[in-house]
Amino acid sequence: MERIPILRMGELLLVTIQVDMQDQMAMRLQDDLTNAISKFGAKGVLIDISALEMVDSFIGRMISDIAGMARILDATTVLVGMQPAVAITLVELGLSLPGIATALNVERGMALLRRKV
Amino acid sequence: MAANGMIASVLKKRGAQLQTEWLKELEAAGSGASRGRISSDELSKQTSQFVQLLTAVADSKQADALNSAQGKQLREFLEALIRSRVEQGFSSAETATFIFSFKKPLFQALRVEAGGNAEALAQEIWAATELLDSLGMHTVTAFQRAREELITRQQEEMLELSTPVVKLWDGILALPMIGTLDSARTQVVMESLLQKIVDTGSEMAIIDITGVPTVDTLVAQHLLKTVTALRLMGAECIISGVRPQIAQTIVHLGVDLQGVITKANLADALALALKRGGYKVSHE
Question: In chain B, what residues touch A102 (CB-CB under 8 Å)?
């Protein structure tokens, strides 16, 4: 099964989701990411979802959960590059992802993350 | 419709004469060429084509003449004619008159054709009435449909016109909203604003509601959704142009606008957006 790569940049982790996420993949990402945070002692996580064109309530929930888990492990999460259709869907689903920082693109997300960490 | 035999022969024999009389009838009914909405050339072309197509229908001798191939041709011709009538500003009654005024000349011709045979004449007139009435009904339905299409198209055009997203500064977009907000409009507004945010890479959006006459819970809900969607994408949103009455309404309705930056006017919102963007405005 495909897995989503987690890249390490110093004390930050970079996750780019390039394919439409399946539920299994999302579960696996949750696992991998929490392990990576504790293994590398990461202080910040940047999740790029610019290639994600569809979300359902499960994936929305998963993103929110990942941010929550990262926070408990003392890492800040920034979500970048959300597409308009995805944003509208999440709002309609009632998932406003409170407490998650967002940015328009990876560059600005990185700057934001560096300021926060 | 075996009774159609006489109608067909009358139409064939006296087609040109019927058409002339019909044009006179149309003139008398006020749907003719003299009102200037339609040229007499055009009208005579339309009437002759109608007579021709009707002849084909009457000639087809099928039980359900209007649903035959010839009937379909006639209906299509009528639909095209009605669309042009709608654009020329005819009313539905005037459009239906186009068909119904053909009755008088046709009945007269049938009477001449039938001679003294009253029974045959009654039968023929009934058949002709049935045919023309169903065409008339079809005219009215088609007229209504054409009008509805026109209204829908205009609504769509208005929707496009009413949601401009303007760039105020590098990285600052503004959306002046005018008119009442409903679900369909808010959806369009939301989509165009979010798309523009992606296209321009702006981090600030100002939604100006000066032109929105009333804010109810639904409108407030829509605004909150837009703000949340913008935040999810990584942009910030300011709502400006909140009038005193609207502020009162929002509080009375118990709508929670916490976490949303609101400003009384667009100037204040722009000043804040510039400040957030690291700009300084100075006056010499």
Answer: 231-234
